[in-house]
Amino acid sequence: HQLAEAPARAALNAPMQRTRVLARFGVAFDVDGVLTRVPNAIPGAYEALSKLQAGGVPFCLMTNGGGATEASKAESLSKLLGLDTPLVPEQICLCHTPMKALAKPGPESLKDETVLLVGKKYGQLKDIAETYGFTRAITVEELHARYPDMYNDMPPAVELDPSSVAAESDLKIKAILTMIDPIEWGRETQIVCDVLRSDGTVGTDVDTQVVAMHNSCSDFEYAARWPTPRFGAGAFRHSLEALWSALSGREMVQTLYGKPHPVQYDFVETLLSELPVVDASGEVVAGAVDRFYMVGDNPLTDLRGANIAGAHWNSILVRTGLWQGGPDDNDPTDPADKVAEDVGAAVDWILEQEAARK
Hints:
With 358 residues, this protein is α/β, with parallel strands linked by helices. Helices cover 33% and strands 17% of the residues. The protein has helices at 2-12, 45-55, 70-81, 122-132, 140-146, 185-196, 233-248, 262-274, 299-309, 343-357; strands spanning 25-29, 36-37, 40-41, 59-62, 92-93, 114-118, 136-139, 175-178, 212-215, 221-222, 230-231, 254-256, 276-278, 284-286, 291-296, 313-318, 338-340. α6 links the parallel β8 (175-178) and β9 (212-215). The protein is elongated and about 65 Å long.
């Protein structure tokens, strides 16, 4: 049904109603260190993306950031980059975007199961979960409000709504969705471990992990305005894993999202193939994409993911972010297919490669 929805989306978004030449290649861009260094756009980012838009090339922004809706991220990045043709939500892949699949109908669907959301700005996280299709999402703040003694170093941040899912007498949690790193690491670590050691009913203690963990905290570090890298969401995952291991003596069983994990690259392959494209006749179609380029600044995530995704992916490393190699360098562990000075040079190389195929 996604193809059937494409004309409607295009009609609602006037900039999509331009004639574009179908391309059989697509491009995924990391954001921090490639297109932006918050709060500024990196020079050349506007020109690079505008060139792809003008050429009808499907592209998306693939970031290990999260905690926002794809629509709000598309709007904020369009403004930051100054794009004449705004990005649409379908062009955004946040770290947790592939979790949408967990709410799709099917025997393993979590759509109508109780799931615990972990992260920051919990009102936004609940909005995201509802957008994805989850009908029984609760937050760490709500669970803490119901059971204040789970973490007594601080009072609950919210009052428990007696009509909420979290207040149900037979509450049983099926899965944890760690969508982004939290602010209150101590509270979230304690409560997540309490849920993981339970059979889904808070306060129980079992010898095997029953509650599923889905974790999209990936980047250990990221480039920002400070001269040295900052801890990313992945730092929380490493801390949580270490404390769970020390507590239980077991490795945490979890499904990982975000770069470099394969689920993210599989999702982007589908995303780029299904992006609405207007052909020469004005008909909105989905252009089949069979080769992909990843432009990133982090060899450990951006490049590693592309390199293991298959021969139909090419990895490009830029020098404007986390990686600061010399003019003739490449990462020794996760080498790029191409090292470029910046995103503009990366896009020029991609277009040269594609022109040579014709």
